[in-house]
Design a protein that fits this description.
With 242 residues, the chain is of the alpha+beta class. The chain has helices at residues 46-64, 70-91, 138-145, 150-153, 192-195, 200-209, 213-226, and strands spanning 2-9, 19-24, 34-41, 99-100, 102-108, 111-117, 121-125, 129-131, 175-180, 186-190, 233-240. It has one domain: Phosphatase 2c, domain 1, CATH 3.60.40.10. The chain is 33% helix and 27% strand.
């Protein structure tokens, strides 16, 4: 059994919200549940169109899939979403150049199957906080190469440049992860509007310091806004309950 809560907020500086979240504690096709966070990019309304279109396509493909393996269901769903977003961006001038990040998760007992493209993240939070996904961003690649310190990446002028996006081209490279949750651990999925404002340990302290899952998510958004809220902020929390 799962306890979940999701929230998305426009933040303090943006005029519209280009993030899109989806949660289902009940089966979506052969997936036992499904959680998605997408952070769109593109001028005017193209970013919010990209994130919504990606999420809706993923849900539709997963719903109809006859496949049993959750990783293969996610792979096909994300590849189809990439194709759909890319095709629309080439056909409609006002949507040209649009794209979106995606982070997806499904829980099977204590096991979690995860997929991501871009720099939206999934963390496991308990006694520690562990980022499971890897950012597909210019600064993260510099950190991995040793050309940039991790501490400097969060404030770097190029921190918003992502190196992989859903809808950016004909094909998409997806990262897959699987983790086993220990008792008392939970999942946090979020857009970079949260992680650009709060350090990982601050996120963990907020999550562990609130009484229930709704408060945890609401305080995360409130604190990110207090720090400036320079981007849209999206949070999905998933807590397995015995």
């Amino acid at each position: 059994m799962l306890k979940t809560f999701s929230i998305t907020d426009v933040g303090k500086k943006r005029m519209n919200n280009q993030d899109y979240v989806y949660t289902s504690e009940t089966p979506v096709g052969n997936l036992p549940n499904l959680f998605l966070v997408a952070d769109g990019m593109g001028g005017h309304n193209a970013g919010d169109y990209a994130s919504r279109c990606a999420v809706e396509t993923i849900c539709q493909v997963a719903e109809q899939s006859m496949e049993k393996d959750p990783k293969l269901i996610m792979k096909k769903a994300i590849e189809t979403a990439n194709e759909t977003v890319y095709q629309r961006s080439t056909q409609e001038p006002e949507l040209e150049g649009m794209g979106t990040t995606i982070v997806a998760a499904t829980c099977m007992g204590p096991y979690v199957q995860i997929a991501n493209v871009g720099d939206s993240r999934l963390y496991v939070i308990g006694d520690t906080i562990q980022q499971i996904t890897q950012d597909h961003s210019w600064v993260e690649e510099m950190v991995r190469m040793g050309a940039l310190e991790k501490e400097d990446a969060r404030t770097h002028a190029k921190k918003n440049i992502i190196t992989r996006a859903l809808g950016a081209g004909n094909g998409v490279e997806i990262d897959f992860f699987s983790v086993e949750l220990k008792p008392q651990e939970m999942l946090l999925m979020c857009s970079d509007g949260l992680t650009n404002m709060l350090e990982d340990e601050e996120i963990r302290m907020i999550v562990m310091g609130q009484r229930d899952i709704v408060e945890k998510a609401e305080v995360l958004v409130r604190e990110a806004n207090k720090r400036g809220g320079t981007d849209n902020i999206s949070v999905v929390l998933v807590e397995p309950v015995a």
